[in-house]
Amino acid sequence: xxxxxxxxxxxxxxxxxxxxxxxxxxxxxxxxxxxxxxxxxxxxxxxxxxxxxxxxxxxxxxxxxxxxxxxxxxxxxxxxxxxxxxxxxxxxxxxxxxxxxxxxxxxxxxxxxxxxxxxxxxxxxxxxxxxxxxxxxxxxxxxxxxxxxxxxxxxxxxxxxxxxxxxxxxxxxxxxxxxxxxxxxxxxxxxxxxxxxxxxxxxxxxxxxxxxxxxxxxxxxxxxxxxxxxxxxxxxxxxxxxxxxxxxxxxxxxxxxxxxxxxxxxxxxxxxxxxxxxxxxxxxxxxxxxxxxxxxxxxxxxxxxxxxxxxxxxxxxxxxxxxxxxxxxxxxxxxxxxxxxxxxxxxxxxxxxxxxxxxxxxxxxxxxxxxxxxxxxxxxxxxxxxxxxxxxxxxxxxxxxxxxxxxxxxxxxxxxxxxxxxxxxxxxxxxxxxxxxxxxxxxxxxxxxxxxx
Length: 453
Fold this sequence. Notes:
- The chain is α+β, with helices and mostly antiparallel strands.
- 28% of the residues lie in helices and 29% in strands.
- Strand 22 and strand 23 form a beta hairpin.
């Protein structure tokens, strides 16, 4: 896939003289971008990937000679066809998307039929292990039909049936000096599958299998692990290279010198090098040479899970202890409850519920509720009414949390109080240079609001 040009609006301009290069338009979440209809037609028919239409990544409408694409809640690079891509950016400033994904443990969506090329980064991205596995398996499919690459390797052997070049010095030192006149040391060129390229692929499969099978393991990985094991068997005559000496193989270092007849190895080699080299992906920014499915992120879900995970991590040491619960889940490990004190009642499902249990009586109290709103504007009246309902039901103060807006000075503020139930606001800076510092400041703010801390 060639590197696309970038268009910062609805008016495309060529970044080079090669008009065959794909053009990338930029849009924000829930924003609009207009695309020239001529770029979307082939022989008079609309040419848009069926995956894009089926998943409703955009609302599309005709406006004159343009199609207007209105983005939804997915961010990432979304190919529309072979000639047009739309890069949907977050509607609030985000410094490191990879950090949010890693802490939230939210897996992004991979659009397997829509490929793009990524730059590598030194920061590992373990939350993409499933994507690496499915991508490597996909890249290995041509090896099943085209066969494993055999190449001539220089090998030294001890044998009683010599072929190749006899090594006199080695023969005398290793055999004749010990009274073995029936063996010689030889050097031959052997046509074999056990070489650096295949060792790289086998070792990458083994590494992925171990990582995916280690806790915490996502649900539903058994079919993926079975596929990895099946692919591993294809390299039964290849040595496992746990020391990764294969990374020094010339064809591994520079896959472009792999013979053209075996060019189908190149994508798999790039992915395997990334896995064994413990590299990660640059999710935003420029295009690199590792081709993987386009990664899309639901930042609303990620922001919510991220805030909950930060509190779970940072409040674990508190005394008396406090449980950080997901209010959308019920049962002993969830924070959902009925709105009213008597049944029947509608449930209430705040994003984060802090709960304490008295060791002597077993009585549950809820010292804090946190409601998370991913948006690029201030809280609405409906948000406050919702917070008041949570406060009344849980007998708890509530903090409304949203991303910090560009140029915004205040980080925390008081919204109001009714019958002793306090509602406050907090602006979390997703663009902070030091993400850990911002996270700890937020956790400290919540901890200070808890009685007895």
